[in-house]
Amino acid sequence: MARVPLIDEHATPEIAALAAQIRGARGGQLHVFYRALLHTPALASAWFEFNNAVRFRTSLGDRVRELAIMRVAALTGCAYVWHVHEELYAAPAGITPREVEALRDWRESGVFGARESALLAYVDAMTSNVAVPDAVFDGMSRHFSARETVEATVLVGAYNMQTRVLRALDLDPEKT
Q1: What distance in Å separates the CA atoms of residue 150 and residue 9, rounded to the nearest whole number?
Q2: Per-residue confidence at 176, pLDDT binned at 50, 70, 90?
Q3: N or C: at which end does the chain have fewer Cβ atoms within 10 angstroms?
Q4: Half-sphere exposure at residue 172, Cβ-oriented, CA atoms within 13 angstroms
Q5: Which tens digit of pLDDT belongs to each residue from 107-145?
Q6: Cβ contacts of residue 19 below 8 Å, gap of 6+?
Q7: Which pLDDT does position 26 carry in this prediction?
Q8: Cβ pair 101, 74 in contact under 8 A
Q9: Angle, CA of 117, 140 and 102, to the nearest 5°
């Protein structure tokens, strides 16, 4: 059960307008995450804008983006993000069910090529250790431009924050 009450999207005119904006950009959905953030509309609005930029206004391809997000979810144990991205975004991004499952133990799977392995090693270092060893960064630099590296870094950082908020507040689509 969520540790904070979820806000009714019609609680105030300000919240209703923001909820409508979020629904409009999310295929008519107002995810539990946003219903929690609506305790502070300014935070919900800022997160919405930031998340849209991180996910949809970069040069990263859909596949790279979804591999990174799902690996963060696997490492942080965030069932919410894993479930949403497995169900809604993995297949359209070209990630097969076999690859989805391989993300949990990608090094042993042998499923991913050099470029994607460099990305996943980078995600692992950022998420598990925070500091990224030079060898891991060099691997990333061999396969991604400086722009893509910055974009991937911000994406991974953003999803580390999101998964931690979801876990701390016990927000899960199956529990609410």
Answers
A1: 35
A2: very low
A3: N
A4: 12
A5: 999 999 999 999 999 999 999 999 999 999 999 999 999
A6: 9, 10, 30, 34, 38
A7: 81
A8: no
A9: 15
User: Do residues 66 and 89 touch, judged by C-beta distance below 8 A?
Assistant: yes
Q: What are phi and psi of 12, to 5 degrees?
A: -145, 160
- Residues belonging to the chain: 176
Model confidence band, residue 174 (pLDDT cutoffs 50, 70, 90): low
The architecture that CATH gives domain 62-168 is: Up-down Bundle (1.20)
Burial class (CB in 10 A: 0-12, 13-18, 19+), 107: exposed
Task: Evaluate whether 87 touches 119 at the Cβ level (below 8 Å).
Answer: no
